[in-house]
Amino acid sequence: MVALDGPHYLSLFPARSEERAGALLGLLRDDFPVAVRGLVEGGSPAGTDPAREDACFRKMVRVRRPGGPRAIEGLVRRDMDAAPRETKQPVTVFAVRDLVAREAFDRYADRLDIVLVDLGSHHFHVEAPEAMARLPAAVVG
Fold first, then answer.
1. pTM given for the model
2. Which range, 14-18, 20-24, 92-96, has the best average confidence (pLDDT)?
3. For residue 36, what are the contacts with CB-CB under 8 A and spacing of at least 6?
4. What are the pLDDT digits (tens) for 32-80?
5. pLDDT score, position 2
6. Which of 15, 69, 88, 96 is such that its CA lies 20 to 30 A from the CA of 56?
């Protein structure tokens, strides 16, 4: 199994209390653009071109509602630690080198093979689609 990025959003792992989830989801409901801006900035390494961040923000903030907020709500309410625990086959996660904290390796080294990549931001699948498309072949190859 191959996953693209994610371990830099460690605040989504593991499940949070209903109170903490509600606070985060309240921001999504109350000021979606501010929440989206925070997600884009959180997924951008230091030195990311501001124009690239703005382009990503503009694309994400246009997502149809309530679909976009509900998709994020699904992530917030899900126990993101459970899936790797319950998955029997190997899981490789391609993650942006400049975003992944040592804590991700400490917490998940027994369950995930985290492979660091230098392809841009959390949105590298859009920024460098050709390079991203070659990554899974390296695992299967």
1. 0.79
2. 92-96
3. 57, 60, 61
4. 899 889 989 989 999 999 999 999 999 989 987 777 788 888 888 888 7
5. 81
6. 15
